[in-house]
Structures are given as structure tokens and as C-alpha cells.
User: Fold this.
Amino acid sequence: MCDTCGCSTEGGVVLRKPGETGYHLHIVESDHESAIHSHDEAHRHDHTHHHHHEEGSGRKVLLEQDVLLKNNLLAERNRGFFEARNIFALNFLSSPGSGKTTLLEKIIPLIVPHSPVAVIEGDQQTTNDADRIHALGVPVIQVNTGSGCHLDAMMINRAVKELELQNNSLLCIENVGNLVCPAMFDLGEALKVVVISVTEGDDKPLKYPNMFHEADLCILNKIDLLPYVDFDALKCRENALRINHHLEWLEVSAKTGEGLDLWQQWIKSKIQQH
Amino acid sequence: MHEMSIALSIIEAVEAKAREEGAERISGIDLVVGKLAGIQPESLRFCFSAAAKGSMAESALLQIEEPEGIGECLECGRKFPVSFCYAECPECRSLKIGIVSGEEFRIQTITIEEEGD
Assistant:
């Protein structure tokens, strides 16, 4: 269908768990909800008044409905569940290859002594990322979006039911690597974290403003490579803050561990404020 | 892009409403897509025609109204047109701008064809 990323329903969304080769769950939205809206007799009677209309003129019906209403309602359900269980959910967003999974691999062992952690991994295909998180010994589920380019609230709703989430825990949701589409879909998270790396351009916030506009924290990753690339960290930060003046900013290297302590403190303080 | 899944959710919403109204099919859909909503109307039209195949909205005419972006300075209160979700206030040069219009994304009305019409 869509040439850019091939979004379509044909791909089908599948949940997978590392270490459980037999586990495989398709997410299919039932038609049940729309089926129950069948018209009743009173309704039909109403419509007879319109029969004098010309052939094919039709009748206008006011909807005034937000296109993302269904996703937003489900996201709020997820959010309510997280609040009730005191689960702090972070939605990680970035282009492919900026180091989201490596950042999670580095930060999770630092968080686990203080609070339980679980992870939802979003990718079009493979359980590669979930396998890496599974190796850390924390609960993880992989959502394969098939040809879809983003996670939505329904996928999180289903994934959460398959994950044994503990009360007072941290839930990390790693979205599909894509700086465009995931910005529009609320998952029910507490905060959004956008990751950018120094091997990308420092004008990225200007090129993909929606993502930076929606984010709460921006992590600049791979700062160990700064001496070798033409990336101006200060300029990038300025660009990001022009888009979103509430955006918080951290500079880290998942490889050397630089800045991870500050990020850990950030998570800790946000959990306390939550 | 995300326009495909958006097109599918529009069809789902309009079909539900049309069934509720006892309609046979949908001949028109009026959308409001603000210029700052992050949706490409051309892309949405393209995806819509593919997504609508076999649905009640298969032959529906898609009308898209695109409200302009309007920002409001959070420092001095001046309102001015914006084409991006960041801007500088033309009055006081502040970068603290709130968006008051242009982020709309809703299904406004549908035109339905009923039995016997």
C-alpha cells in the first residue's frame, strides 16, 4: 500500500516471547463493537421523514469525532491501569539505529536493584531486540507490527495482558524505529523519551518537529563519537528546544557509560514525582 | 507513513455511525485536517481509496478542510499565523508559543444514502 513504510493490515500484528518458541499470539480486532450498533425500529421510523429527498442526495450526519478517538480512549485505559498499579511507563522513540535497545541494556541493570522492570519491544519483524532484553533476566514481550510503522494503544493493551507486570515497576516501551508516525499515537505512557545519536544530523529536531514537540526528554546518545563527527551538540539542543521549550536534555554514551548516572537519576526522580 | 492505519480507523468510525443511522452506504465524508496535524492530505486520500475497497465508504467523496495554523504567544498574548509547531512571536520575539488552531484532526460529517432514497 504505502510505499514509504508499507503500512497495511495485511502484515498482521503478532506478539512473541523470547525463550518460548511455541508462543505466538495474533492481535485481531473483532468486529463485535461495530456489530452491536445495528439499527433499532425507532431509528428506522425516523428515517422515513427523509424519503422525499432526491435520488442519491443522501443525508448529512454530524460526527465531530476525533480520528484518533479510539486509540486515545484505549491509551487512557492503559494509563489508568498503570496508575492503579503504580507502573511508570516510558515510551522510547527514535530513528532506527540510534541505540534505544543498547541504552535499555545499559540502564535496566542499574534500575533493577531499586524497582522491577519490564519491557515491550516494537519492531516490524524478528525478536532480536526482545532476545537481548531477555538476556538481562527481565520480563519482555516482542510486538511485531508486520507492515505497520508504529505501536498503538491496542497493541500495548494486548501486550500488557501477556506480560506479568509487577506493582511499583518501570515499564519501558521501545517503539518501532521511526521518527514520524509513532509521534501521533498515545500508548498510555507517563512520558515520551526521544533518542537521537551524534551520527545523525544536528538539524534532526527541525526535520522531524512533531516527534520533538511531543517528547518530554531527549537523550543524545553515542557522545563518545563526538570527536569523529561533524555534530554540534549545542546546536542540536538549541534546535530541539526551539520546537519544545519544555524538553529535558541528557547527553550519554551507552558504549562507555558516560551520562548514564544522570539518566538513572532522572528516571528515579520522575518515578517519585509520578 | 501512518496515513494507512489512519484511513482504516476513519472507515471504521464512519461505518459504525452509518450502521447506527441505518444507512446502506456512505457517499461523502467531511474531514478537518489542520495544517499542523502531521497528516498529508494527498497521502491520506491515496490510502483512503485503497482502504475503502469493499466497505460502505467505497465510493465516498472525501472532502478535506485544512484550517491554517495559528499560534499564541505565551508571554505577550499576541496571536499570529504559524506554519510549524515552533515559531517566534512577531511582537516580543519570544519562542514560547502555544498552538491554538491547526492541530485539528476530526471527522466532521458523513453523507449517508438510505434505503429507498
